[in-house]
Task: inverse folding
């Protein structure tokens, strides 16, 4: 019984296209072998993922270790997709970068007057589309 | 202008209750300062989060560093919630544990005959409910 066909690996072009349909993602950070995960609203294009962050845990983590993993997905009862990216983050500091980021359709989960923009330069991206099908029988009774 | 009221910190009881309404979450792992993030289907109850994993990157990461972060969320146009947990993972090996896990309503993203159950013992859990409201004006023009 072939069951692997329920998962399809997508191209990086398809990965970026899927990201353009979503605003909600998550980043994973790591400091001292302790992983952390944070939900973000993001904008993805041109090899970069941009999000806003108020001062706090996310920015502190990134200041110590700027290596990030990112994930976004969408599912319904039949299946869905997931995109995973890895890259390096930097906090935007130049007026030009910040003014450009101000034009992006980004919103923060926490309304705040004080925030920074974080830009992830993506080094690796992968995407899978999958269909929830009948389970294979673990004990071999086909 | 008070804007912080759009975010509400929930109790750990509420966090577990929200987790019982979702199947899709993500775990973050970390090995050698490189964070990774993986989507999972999970079952959460009694201070534990259980998921299935085929042999591969997730299990390899957990074998090296069993500290995990976990996240699940739900959003619509008006707002949503996010639950974040941190804990330690172990792969279930006893027949009794595996038989108990076989009874859980868990499915894998990738249909496979060979998989392990991973159980996260949660040390910390937090949850926030938020409402997307009008943006505060960053430049103070109220």
Result:
């Amino acid at each position: 019984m072939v069951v692997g066909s329920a998962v399809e690996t997508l191209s990086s072009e398809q990965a970026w296209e899927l990201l353009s349909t979503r605003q909600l993602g998550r980043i994973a950070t790591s400091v001292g072998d302790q992983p952390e995960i944070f939900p973000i609203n993001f904008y993805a294009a041109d090899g970069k993922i941009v999000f806003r962050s108020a001062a706090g845990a996310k920015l502190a983590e990134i200041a110590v270790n700027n290596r990030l993993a990112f994930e976004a997905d969408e599912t319904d009862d039949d299946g869905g997709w997931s995109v995973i990216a890895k890259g390096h983050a930097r906090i935007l500091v130049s007026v030009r970068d910040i003014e450009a980021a101000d034009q992006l359709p980004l919103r923060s989960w926490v309304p705040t007057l004080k925030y920074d923009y974080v830009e992830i330069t993506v080094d690796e991206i992968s995407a899978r589309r999958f269909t929830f099908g009948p389970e294979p029988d673990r004990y071999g009774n086909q």
Remarks:
- Confidence is low (pLDDT under 50) at residues 1-5 of chain A.
- The radius of gyration of chain A is 18 Å.
